[in-house]
Amino acid sequence: MDIEKVTFSAPGKVILFGEHSVVYGYPAIASAIGLRAKCSINSTSLEKNSISIPNIIPARKFILGNEIPGVLKSLEFIVHHILKKTKNQKKLEMEILSDLPVSAGLGSSAAVSVSVAASLFSILGIEHNLENVNEVAFDAEKIIHGTPSGIDNTISTFGGSIIFEESNIKQIPINLPLSHFIIVNSLVPRNTKDLVYSLRDRYNKDTKKYSQLFEKIGEIVEESQKNLKLGDLERIGDLMNRNHILLDELGVGNKHIKKIVSILNNQKAFGCKLTGAGGGGCVIGLFEDRENINNVIELLHQEGYNAFITDISTQGVRHE
Fold first, then answer.
1. 180-310, what's its fold?
2. FRET partner for 238 with CA separation of 20 to 30 A, picked from 206, 221, 284, 319?
3. CA atoms of 140 and 117, how far apart (whole Å)
């Protein structure tokens, strides 16, 4: 049957434990979240394929093959790559919408890439599986980030939670049915590559100090696996707090992250920490009482930060 319209969505992610130390061979744990990117594709009578991203560039439709913004180059790659696998000549009109803020460490680009790849495979009638979707999305991530770890696209494709260590990715069980995370966007721009290089420079100058910090973070990651499986919110929160203190000692915090963490702690979060590279980006806080969460979000908005609630998600890319 010829399909005229499809929509697929894919989740973003948070790093729960282990950012930065993972670069030095220690494990990190990341999970899919309820915030998603969505790609809708229609067959069109136009002569060329087009794409629009109204969240980022309102009221504009871009024709692939013409000059397009750099932010769309990875998506153009996906389209051309998948079109090579079929003789289907239908022209496509693509629209991408996303709940995920851009450049905030939540895997927004990977979620978009995964949703686009899955939608294209489907509407063009190309036989595929999740590994195929993940592979194409990973290649697209390389265009954006150079040498990505593969964490973001893997989580976005398969969902759930993973432990990542020295390029090995393994799904792990997490049991947090009564928990909710607040994600707070500090709205402070940061460059992940610069932060990683700066920390590498400090590590080279004082290897003993930073090796000890990385080892302590690695121990927290190992301990967190058991507690995430058991769903022990108090213990998980304590581990989040300890992880954040160590990240602060690594020098990847700033005054905005410190203020957000202080607010979340004062509002009785089980625990909170920056997520991602730091230097800006997002902070996550673990709560149980949803009514209290709404009050916390309102307080954070009053302080000038973007805040929203999400849950850990078991679902990866899905047909809508």
1. Alpha-Beta Plaits (3.30.70)
2. 206
3. 10
pLDDT at 44: 84
Q: How far is CA 269 from the centre of its chain?
A: 22
| Average pLDDT of the residues of the chain | 91
Collapse the DSSP code of 7 into the 3-class scheme (helix H, G, I; strand E, B; otherwise coil) and give the result. Answer: strand
What is the pTM assigned to this prediction?
A: 0.88
Q: Is 246 exposed, middle or buried (0-12, 13-18, 19+ CB in 10 A)?
A: buried
What values do phi and psi take at 102, rounded to 5? -85, 145
- Where the chain has pLDDT below 50, the residues are none
Check residue 94 and report its DSSP letter.
E
Domain 5-173 class? alpha beta
Each domain of the chain, given as residue ranges in start order, spans 5-173, 180-310
- Tell me how long the chain is: 320
Rounded Cα distance between 306 and 106, Å, is 14
